[in-house]
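Sharing a chain and its predicted structure for anyone who wants a worked example. Both blocks are below, sequence first, C-alpha cells second.
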Amino acid sequence: MLRPEVASVSQQERLRAAMASSSISHGQTVRADIEHVEVSTRIFSTPLVFFCGMRGMRVAETVQPGDGGPLPAEVAVTGLVVEREGMYNIQNARISSNGRIEVTVDEQSRVVPLLMAR
C-alpha cells in the first residue's frame, strides 16, 4: 500500500487555486470532492501526491466558515492510502486551511481510482 506525501514538486498551487475559485478562505473547513489527483513515484522513490492534473473541486459542505484571509502556502495530505500509482478522485475529503492546508481522507471519505486509457 502507498501512503503518498506532499512535496515541493506536488504543484500545491493548483490545489490553492481550486480552493480560491471555490471561495474557500483561511480558517475554513469544508467537505469536498477533488478530481484527478495523481499518486506517483516518478520523481522520487517516495510516493508523492501531484495536483497538476486536478480538474476541480466541488464543495459539498462548509463545516466551519473562514475568516476571509489568504490561504496558507503549505499543503499536507493525511489518511490517503492507495494500492498503486495512478489517478484518483478523492470524494468527501475534509479540507481545512488554518496554518496549512490539510486534506484529510477519513472514514467519511472515499478514494476512487480512475481508469486509464491503454
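Comments welcome. Residues 12-21 form the longest helix (10 residues).
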